[in-house]
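Record type: ASSEMBLY
Status: queued
Input:
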Amino acid sequence: MTKPKLLIARKLRPAVEARAARDYDVVLNPEDRVFSEAELIAACREVDAVLPCHSERFSAGVIAALGPRLKIIANHSVGTDHVDLAAAKAAGIVVTNTPDVLSDATAEIAILCMLGAARRGAEGDAMIRAGKWDFWSPAFMVGRQVTGRRFGVIGMGRVGQVTADRARGFGMQIHYHNRRRLPDHLEKGAVFHDSVESLLAVSDVLSLHCPATPENTGMINERTLALLPERAILVNTARGGLVDEAALVAALKSGKLFAAGLDVFRTEPGGNPEIAALPNVFLLPHIGSATEETRDAMGFRALDNLDAFFAGIAPGDRVA
Ligand code: 8YV
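Status: finished
Output:
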């Protein structure tokens, strides 16, 4: 039987590429080049399946140009905002993602962002690297302690729940807003808020964990930032589009926000130079799931979805 032809759009871990090469006629990208839109379309037209990352955008226009061969987009990501799911569905293309396997890694990064922001991690690191640490005093580099404070979560899905568990380790009280209230065994005493506004009012630390949708673009903006307690901390490991970055810069400059810890930005790669110029931010280049274990698990999960699809079984992580 001929193997299905599979395009792996970005460089994945060796074990993942080896398994893919065993089971598929693979087209790899060993130089890890980022495809232009035209290159992505041309490459996808020649294959039965594609395994992309969030760096490959499948807009309605791209999907319309893919032609009849491509049957499945098996994402190497939990977020699927880079794929127009309605257009894929209309074109009869199956779409899958990789939930669960990146929750621990992303929760680690959320806690790193929280602590880095609260305890001025980037400022201290930059000072030593620049050879500018020439003074010490008890009044020096005083940050905010998170222990015992209120940790607000927007989007209490898998990543939100694991992050809340880690925050519980700091004695933080968990508050959350989610489309649905969680059952007791998952809520674990966290306080449910049926509106974002009510959650913001009690979030000493606000951590974003919801998927990005057209409806929630810019949900953290001038109006909503004003609802946070004074000197709150914002953590974003979800998607840059959730935050109005101009409003964020203003809140960081005014002191309304004590600090922000960000792993994601509206412009990626690159980030936002206005944010990067501020002292009270801790910034990372979208590496929430970038651990050896999780990258392997994401790759294998995407391949599991492909295997199921080509065996005529419904893939476990089908989103369209
Ligand atoms: C990944 C992510 O690094 O899974 C997601 O949605 O944003 C990140 O964990 C990236 O998407 C890999 O393709």
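Annotation: The mean pLDDT is 98.
Annotation: The longest helix spans residues 292-310.
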